[in-house]
Amino acid sequence: MADFLGMMKQAAQLQSKMKAMQDELEQVEVDGIAGGGLVSVRMTAKSEVKAVKIDPSLIKPDDREILEDLLVAALNDARRKAEAAMQEKMQALTGGLGLPPGLGLT
């Protein structure tokens, strides 16, 4: 019975830490860059886009497809960085618990 109570206490502590981590991830921001910096996207580690910057040289009607492609590339770059930041936070939180990968705690 004591083991069960200990596990319940650990689970409650983990839940509290997860909530704190989720709140912290909303504050972590990453920049995704494409086209050598001509397009950049800022997003939180929870993948909320905060800003998009486009170099004025790209804003030409004939270059619309290039701009669209660079925007997609910048968003994907930012998303990869956001996922890496989230994984880093999760590892720091669950490092000693030996939880199986893919548990879906985020």
Please describe what this structure looks like.
Helix content is 52%, strand content 17%. With 106 residues, it is α+β, with helices and mostly antiparallel strands. It has a domain at 27-85: Ybab, Chain: A (2-Layer Sandwich). Strands 1-2-3 form a three-stranded antiparallel beta sheet. A hairpin with a 4-residue loop joins strand 2 (39-44) and strand 3. Helix 1 (2-25) runs antiparallel to helix 2 (64-94). It is rod-shaped. It starts with a helix and ends in a 12-residue tail after the last helix. The mean pLDDT is 81.
Compact description:
With 106 residues, the chain is α+β, with helices and mostly antiparallel strands. Helix content is 52%, strand content 17%.
Layout of secondary structure:
Blueprint: H1 2-25, E1 29-34, E2 39-44, E3 49-54, H2 64-94
Antiparallel strand pairs: 1-2, 2-3
Helix pairs in contact: 1-2
Helix percent reads: 40-55%
- What structural class should be given to the helix and strand makeup? alpha+beta
For the termini, the CA-CA separation is 30 Å
The top-level CATH class of the domain at 27-85 is Alpha Beta
Largest sheet: 3 strands, antiparallel
- Say what the CATH topology of the domain at 27-85 is: Ybab, Chain: A
Q: N-to-C SSE series?
A: HEEEH
Task: Indicate the proportion of strand residues.
Answer: 15-25%
Unreliable sequence segments: none
CATH superfamily of the domain at 27-85: Nucleoid-associated protein YbaB-like domain
Mean pLDDT comes to: 81
CATH-scheme architecture of the domain at 27-85: 2-Layer Sandwich
The total count of helices amounts to 2
Could you tell me the number of beta strands?
Answer: 3
